[in-house]
Design goal:
Elements (H helix, E strand, L loop, with lengths): L2 H22 L6 H44 L23 H8 L4 H18 L5 H13 L12 H12 L1 H17 L4 H11 L8 E2 L19 H4 L1 E5 L3 E7 L20 E7 L1 E10 H6 L3 H23 L9 H5 L5 E3 L8 H10 L2 H4 L3 E4 L1 H11 L7 E2 L8 E2 L2 E5 L13 E7 L4 E14 L13 E14 L5 E6 L1
Parallel strand pairs: 2-12, 6-14, 7-10
Antiparallel strand pairs: 1-12, 3-4, 5-13, 7-11, 8-9, 9-10, 11-14, 12-13
Subcellular location: Virion
Main location: virion
Protein name: HK97 family phage major capsid protein
Length: 489
């Protein structure tokens, strides 16, 4: 009998025994019932022995299959896990086996470990809880876009991203991170057992001494646009990196031509350029009293939420107006002083004619995907100036759809200038294809617990603890030609 037949027979024995018991009621079993009950007991004991042996055989076979799959991966087969094509959708092992992840991460040739790490990371994303479908799709797209076979930097390229996803998405890591910080916030010292789990996983991440937050709350991977007053992440190109500088390459348009038969083809070489986006560090520090850490039941979750909110608010400003000195290059800064900045025709006056000029000067190749960003006060001023002719340039498409200015979607950006200040530069509107503005997140959002803070005057403990968080990212325009900026001077 196979496993299914053995289990089915045991169920039948239990059913028959229950029937005998019900028939006898409160009376003793008669001779026939007693004989049958005894026979069922004997048969059950034998079946359970056979079942245990069959289950052990099945478990041994499963271990052999798993071991053989790993052996196949080490031998460099086409499919490193010994699974059929589409292993990413059918990963059968434990994706959170950190020992296997470490071996894959540090193999000499990336192709031997890269595909296994990719499969594990995709399986981890599929099964992790607490992550929205949109965020899962975002992370899956990131993993599928990476080149695991040409990953020259050990642990700092595609393999590093996959290892980070696996290490921070397991239930054990989530529990350990939460337990370590909850205990630390109450007592000043993290839970020892939880700390051991974090330290093991930390070797696979790039947290630089801190502990990466679990995947479901990692703002460098999870999409979170709710309540944001900046559209930059939503409309721009967003990438994830594990290097200090992210290099992009752009080129001018290639001019093709029709040539006569047998004639020399024209030289259509474009102008090439490189944009290096540097990863700048942002920090957040949240001091709190010992009493709050002890008495506040949801303090850990609220701290994570507050730090993520601080990150969003900071980036909403810096991706628009960041100077590039120790912070990202904002889109306003990138366009300031370039030929793509248009000054108002009349000093200190926002006129509809200037808005039309911005629209007209945007090259056609960027026109269909162009969007506006500006402060809501500027949009309000334009609508008031339109008067009876408002419908000629402004359209409200209904609930859930962005308004349109001259046929292009309108986005609110609170960091843009909202007031026209006399005799000053007032960069009030930008129109462009924001796929040419890149935001690059360095993977990981790390936190560290500071068990005691000291008073700056007396250098004695102040009865406070602190949570220090840090992350890195950068931004810049990779093609200024794709934008036009209106400056009311």
């Amino acid at each position: 009998m196979n496993l299914e037949e053995l289990r089915a027979r045991l169920t039948a024995i239990e059913t028959e025994r229950r029937s005998i018991h019900t028939a006898a009621g409160d009376n003793p079993l008669d001779e026939a019932q007693h004989t049958r009950w005894d026979a069922l007991d004997t048969e059950e004991a034998e079946l359970r022995e056979h079942l245990a042996a069959a289950e052990e055989t099945e478990q041994r076979a499963a271990r052999v299959r798993e071991s053989r799959a790993r052996y196949g991966a080490r031998m460099g087969t086409d499919d490193p896990l010994g699974e059929p094509e589409g292993i990413e959708q059918n990963f059968r092992g434990n994706p959170w086996d950190l020992g296997a992840v470490t071996r894959s991460l540090h193999r000499e040739t990336p192709e031997r470990g890269g595909q296994e790490l990719r499969a594990r990371a995709l399986a981890a994303v599929e099964h992790v809880r607490g992550v929205s479908d949109a965020s899962k799709q975002h992370i899956t797209g990131l993993l599928e876009s990476l080149d695991f076979e040409d990953d020259g930097a050990e642990g700092r390229g595609a393999r590093g991203i996959a290892a980070h996803v696996v290490a921070t998405s397991s239930k054990e890591y989530m529990r350990a991170w939460s337990k370590a910080f909850k205990t630390g916030m109450r007592t000043g010292q993290p839970d020892v057992e939880a700390l051991a789990v974090l330290q093991r996983a930390a070797s696979l991440t790039d947290a630089a001494g801190g502990y990466a937050v679990p995947l479901p709350v990692d703002p460098t991977l999870i999409l979170n646009y709710d309540g944001s007053v900046s559209p930059m992440r939503r409309i721009s190109t967003v990438r994830t990196a594990v290097t200090d500088t992210y290099r992009t390459v752009n080129a001018g348009a290639v001019t093709a031509s029709y040539d006569a038969e047998g004639s020399e083809v024209s030289d259509d070489t474009p102008t090439w350029g490189a944009i290096d986006i540097k990863m700048e560090m942002a920090r957040g520090f949240l001091p709190y009293s010992i009493e709050i850490g002890v008495d506040y039941p949801n303090f850990t979750a609220d701290v994570a939420m507050l730090l993520a909110d601080a990150k969003t608010n900071l980036e909403n400003t810096k991706f628009v107006t960041g100077t590039g000195n120790g912070e990202p290059v904002g889109i306003v800064t990138a366009l300031t002083g370039t030929p793509y900045e248009i000054n108002s025709a009349t000093a200190d006056t926002l006129a509809l004619a200037d808005v039309y000029k911005v629209d007209e000067e945007l090259p056609e190749r960027f026109y269909d995907n162009a969007q506006w960003i500006g402060h809501k006060k500027i949009y309000s001023a334009l609508r008031q100036a339109g008067g009876a002719n408002l419908d000629d340039f402004w359209a409200d498409l209904g609930q859930g759809q962005p308004s349109q200015l001259l046929g292009h979607p309108v986005n609110n950006a609170s960091a843009m200038d909202g007031v026209i200040n006399a005799t000053q530069d007032n960069r009030v509107l930008i129109l462009g294809d924001f796929r040419n503005f890149w935001i690059v997140d360095r993977l990981g959002f790390a936190t560290e617990l500071i068990p005691h803070l000291f008073h700056t005057t007396t250098n004695r403990p102040s009865g406070q603890r602190g949570v220090f968080a840090y992350w890195r990212n950068g931004s810049d325009s990779v093609n200024d030609r794709a934008f036009r900026q209106l400056n009311v001077t």
